[in-house]
Design brief:
alpha/beta, elongated
């Protein structure tokens, strides 16, 4: 049984080789992309290529709600749910759900942690802000249903949050444990979730809040709330995902052992691990120990996994609208690498940002090239050179192998002199020709790759090939 399916993983500092190996090994329910995975549209494109190259079903989500919480580049900014509610036109909720859903789908997402179905109250925590449609539960329900319908029409799996309602909390569960004293099974804040359930919502996210009149435990791990209220009273048969376990309301009180047992035994299906690099292994090991000790029912887990796999099958596709661009970048490469390489401690040479004509935006690509190579080669020494003069700030270079990104060296004799100098200093050199393939004539006898493009997705594909030739 693949227990990895019971977890959702995030890597806020980037999808590096270590992160991809964790995803490959455990095959989780899905992956959430945070702003650190998509600081630019180019980085988002590369992150998606990494996930889809794994070639197994994943739910891929973000926190992009519109308004107060916008994380995905390339989606026009929304005034937010509160503004949509104030306009008093539910069709706008549908339109934003459809618009944002179409963009998410185009980029490779198949899920989103949205919409917020909480109800605004006087002194609601700042974390709710203008993420909420209204202070009227019926209006929240109406606008929420339209937003959900828009996402579904785009092929995006919505997530209703934060059950059973965050609006009465005056504290932020990211920082402390909110306690709501006045709450019952008949509370009006539940109504938007009840309406979403009646229209077929398939994923609900829990609130890291204590509802004191119902239970002394967080809603996320409460049998009274997840089973008695959500499953039995509201007749919900979909999946329940936790909010991020790193939020202090959960982490300080339930991480790792206690929360794992309570969450899965009391009605939860998927634990969201926002900082998976640090926190997944401890919580997974605690989970396995609980299963082996008979503290979590295996039959119960089997049922959860089957439901997760069914949802993955429904929403995952092996390709997405923008994926053909990655294929072009990969298939266009001309690879002339005649050996395997030890890539430890490489010296990497990149051209300084410079447009070579007025009809050129190459400099924009080169501005973020340094970030890419430092991320993909953690122990690299990175040197920048002027593509016209060939000058570098350093006179001496360190590294076991050189990888040089060549920018029209056939035009600039001083850059060409630098490129040839690398062959004298390093035992092995790989040239990556990133613009005009006329350069290839100058490196025919050398290990080289031609990308025919300075775009980051093309350069990343060349880096992938180099790594595939690693000893």
């Amino acid at each position: 049984m693949n227990y990895g399916k019971l977890f959702f993983l995030g890597f806020p500092d980037g999808l590096d080789d270590e992160a991809i190996e964790i995803i490959k090994e455990y095959k989780p329910a899905g992956v959430i992309l945070y702003p650190g995975n998509m600081r630019s549209i180019e980085e988002l494109q590369i992150s998606m290529d990494k996930l889809y190259s794994l070639d197994f079903p994943l739910l891929i989500t973000s926190d992009h709600e519109g308004g107060q919480l916008e994380t995905v580049p390339g989606i026009l900014s929304s005034p937010g749910n509160y503004s949509i509610g104030k306009v008093n036109a539910p069709e706008y909720a549908y339109e934003y759900g459809k618009y944002s859903g179409d963009k998410l789908k185009e980029y490779g997402f198949n899920m989103v942690f949205s919409p917020v179905l909480d109800v605004l109250h006087r002194d609601s925590s700042a974390v709710t802000g203008f993420r909420i449609f209204s202070d009227d539960p019926r209006k929240v329900a109406e606008f929420g249903k339209e937003y959900i319908r828009g996402l579904l029409d785009s092929g995006i799996l919505p997530t209703a949050k934060h059950f059973p309602g965050h609006g009465k909390a005056i504290q932020d569960s990211h920082e402390e444990t909110p306690v709501i004293d006045d709450f019952s099974f008949e509370d009006e804040d539940i109504f938007p979730f009840e309406e979403a359930i009646n229209t077929g919502i398939e994923m609900i996210m829990t609130a890291h809040i204590i509802y004191k009149s119902l239970d002394k435990e967080l809603a996320t791990v409460s049998k009274k709330i997840l089973t008695d209220l959500l499953r039995e009273k509201l007749k919900y048969n979909g999946l329940v995902i936790s909010d991020a376990i790193e939020m202090k309301a959960y982490y300080n009180n339930y991480f790792p052992e206690k929360g794992v047992k309570m969450f899965f035994n009391n009605g939860g299906d998927i634990l969201l691990i926002a900082e998976a690099r640090e926190n997944f292994k401890p919580i997974y090991n605690a989970f396995i120990n609980a299963v082996e000790n008979g503290e979590i029912d295996k039959k119960l887990l089997k049922n959860k996994i089957e439901k997760i796999e069914k949802l993955q099958k429904k929403y995952y596709t092996s390709e997405y609208k923008g994926s053909f661009l990655n294929k072009i970048a990969r298939k266009a490469l001309k690879v002339s690498l005649n050996e395997k390489f030890e890539l430890k401690n490489p010296a990497i040479f990149i051209p300084k940002p410079k447009n070579l004509s007025q009809a050129d935006t190459t400099a924009n690509d080169l501005k973020i090239l340094e970030e890419l190579v430092k991320f993909e080669f953690k122990d690299a020494n990175v040197y920048s050179y002027d593509p016209v003069t060939g000058e570098t700030e350093e006179e001496k270079f360190e590294g076991n192998i050189a990888i040089s990104f060549v920018l029209d060296s056939f035009r600039f004799s001083e850059q060409l002199r630098l490129q040839k100098r690398l062959k004298r200093q390093f035992k092995k050199v790989i040239y990556v020709i990133i613009r005009n393939d006329q350069d290839e004539e100058l490196y025919e006898s050398d290990n080289h790759i031609v990308t025919y493009s300075t775009k980051l997705i093309s350069i990343y594909q060349a880096i992938r090939v180099i790594k595939e030739h690693q000893i």
